[in-house]
Amino acid sequence: MVWTPEFLTYQLSDDHPLNPVRLDLTMRLASQLGVLDGVELLAPEPATEQDLLRVHEPGYLTAVKSAPEMPFDVGHGLGTDDNPIFFGMHEASSLICGGSLLAAREIAEGRADRAVNIAGGLHHAMPGRAAGFCVYNDCSVAIAWLLEQGYERIAYVDVDVHHGDGVQAAFYDDPRVMTISLHQHPLTLWPGTGWSAELGKGKGEGYAVNIPLPPGTGDAGWRRAFHAIVPSLLEDFRPQILVSECGADAHAEDPLANLEMSVDGQRATYQAMRELAETTAGGKWLVLGGGGYALFRVVPRAWTHLLATVLDRDLDPATSIPADWTAHATSLTRMPLPVAMTDDADPSYSPWGDGKADRVDGGLVDTRRAVFPLHGLDPDDPRD
């Protein structure tokens, strides 16, 4: 596990939705529940300019470095409500990229089969501009580094409620990287991309996969869509490593989106990705954080389950929240806090092709019919 308290310096503004308190509360909860007992926490170095230039444009790096000292608009998506300029912006953003690079390096150099950086997952940043609370795209930087090490098949699965547009754009014409994103339908949520017909281009056609979900989709529909598409494609692609962006903002309580997952459904999703890493990627799994704006009630529980899953220390959903954690969180918020690691939800689902109808079926069928034939799979056969 990659961690440093310096990750908390990525704070866009005092009242910005992407508040690093969610990271601090996750680490406190995971520690108090024993998930991190005996786990060495690896402290990263900031990504170098060479690292960042694998993905980002030189002029953009210059803008990020100089923006805090500039008295005027620097452009590049900086200085907006989503991406306000803050002192130490380059340093904090580079450190998060360095964390994801360190996690990738631990796997590539054989010291670990799984590695996690919950501060990572800043998947919206583009080569020349900030977007969606993301200054540098650590996901793309880590994947680009893995490609330089000789990896030829990398699968990126993004379960954030927002489309993983920055990572898709970085590798849209590269058949070595399969990007799969499940997200709220682009007609109803920023960034307005991630349609089933976005497939990649050139040699990369068929290696960009998008699964748009209607607002209100809960555990059963979300998991039905996931299992109707993701396992078949990963089994066909046989990645050498699975990279997961695990934003927690598909939860029903998230204030910035409209899906209806529970912590229990998110826990089941993490466990499904762990199994897919084992069965399709030789056990190699690079795990990154992402979005999540229910800072006190959702993200710490969801990501503690995520850490437990990565470490094979699965928590019983009925596990009580420690009193010390609740006392600390209460000092920071007046909202009522959960008392257990569950939402008391049943995350079971009906598989696609079972003869029953679900509101997610239109989108998942569109995606299967667009992508599956490009991989020699039958889009209408539930066995594929």
TrEMBL record:
Keyword Manganese (UniProt): no
Species in which this protein is naturally found: Pseudonocardia halophobica
A Pfam family this chain is assigned to: Hist_deacetyl
Residue span(s) of domain Histone deacetylase: 16-309
Matching CDD domains: HDAC_AcuC_like
GO molecular function, one term: hydrolase activity
GO process annotations (BP): acetoin catabolic process; epigenetic regulation of gene expression
InterPro entries: AcuC, HDAC_I/II, HDACs, His_deacetylse_dom, His_deacetylse_dom_sf, Ureohydrolase_dom_sf
Coiled coil: none
Family affiliation: Belongs to the histone deacetylase family.
Protein name (record): Acetoin utilization protein AcuC
Pathway: Ketone degradation; acetoin degradation
Record has Hydrolase as a keyword: yes
Keywords linked to the UniProt accession: Acetoin catabolism, Hydrolase
